[in-house]
Amino acid sequence: MVNALGRRKSAVARIFVTEGNGKITINKKDLQDYFPSSILQYVVKQPLLKLDVVEKYDIKVNLDGGGFTGQSQALRLAIARALVKINPEDKKALRLEGFLTRDAREVERKKPGQPKARRRFQFSKR
Length: 126
Fold this sequence. Notes:
Blueprint: E1 2-8, E2 11-19, E3 24-26, E4 29-30, H1 31-34, H2 38-51, E5 57-64, H3 68-86, H4 91-97
Parallel strand pairs: 3-5
Antiparallel strand pairs: 1-2, 2-5, 3-4
């Protein structure tokens, strides 16, 4: 059993990978129930599809924080990291696809005296 961590925006994915038949369980729900969108399901499975091991591992996921896009990308990073732990030779293929790169972009904080992070209130001369 291998465990790994993936983060994106404010989402955190903690995963446990075991030998199995390709079942992905997220917060005690099936992948299709948790991410109804086929695009997000594809994003999650990208590292598995790249290495052609979709039917080889069972993945149990604890997902927390963020929205669905951030969560799916955090999960993709965690799966890629776990696959590298299982077989270090796969690292080059996953690195080339960009699955091992942590996207460090976070939301900029709101500043006082402004409605948003960078947007200013409308200036009035009179």
